Amino acid sequence: MPASDMPPEDRPVSKSFRCKVVTPDAQLLDSDVAYASVPAWDGSFGVLPRRAPILAKLGTGELTLRFPDGDGGERSFFIDGGFAKMADDELVIVAEHAVPAEQLSESDIEAELKEAEARTVPEDAEHGVAEQAKVRNAVQAAKVKLRIAKAVRARGI
C-alpha cells in the first residue's frame, strides 16, 4: 500500500509536509516544507510534520516556511485574513490577502503607512467605530508588511 493511502499514524516518519498558499486570485505556493509559523487571529502557531488536525482563522502577520534540508532555506509571506487547515500532513493556507515577502517594497509600504496614519474618520460618521477599526487595521497591516520587508532586506533576499 502506498504511504499516501495509509492513515497518517501508520505512514513512515516524514521530515516534511505539503503546504499550499492560495488567495482568491492565485496559488502562491505548493511545496514540501519542514516547518511553518502561521499567523492566526489570536497569535502564531507552529506546524511540524504529522501535526494533529487544526482549522484556524488567520490574522494579520507573517507566514514563515522552512524548507526541508535538501531544499534548504526559508520563505515568508505577508498574510491578512483567511483560514488555515492542517490535516493528513497537508497545510492549506486560504488567505484573503497574501504577498510573498520578496515582492514587498519598503518605499511603497512606507507611503501606504503614511497614508493610513493620515486617514481620519469624521465624528459624525454613520459607522464611525467600524471606520476607525478599518483605519487601525490598515495601519497595523502596513507596519507588519514593513517589518517583513526590512527583515527580508536584512537577510539579503
Provide a descriptive summary of the structure in words.
The protein is α+β, with helices and mostly antiparallel strands. The protein has two domains: about 5-100, Sandwich (ATP Synthase, domain 1), CATH 2.60.15; about 105-155. The chain has two helices and eight strands, in the order ββββββββαα. Strands 1, 2, 3, 4, 5, 6, 7 and 8 form an eight-stranded mixed β-sheet that branches. Helix 1 (about 105-120) packs antiparallel against helix 2 (about 130-155). The longest helix has 28 residues, at about 130-155. The model has no long low-confidence stretch (mean pLDDT about 90).
Q: What is the gist of this entry?
A:
A hairpin with a 4-residue loop joins β1 (17-22) and β2 (27-33).
Largest sheet composition = 8 strands, mixed
The stretches of 5 or more residues where confidence is low (pLDDT under 50) are: none
Total beta strand runs: 8
Class inferred from helices and paired strands: alpha+beta
CA radius of gyration is 18 Å
Number of domains: 2
Task: Provide the β-strand percentage band.
Answer: 35-45%
Q: Which outline best applies? A: globular
Instruction: Report the CATH C-level class of the largest domain.
Output: Mainly Beta
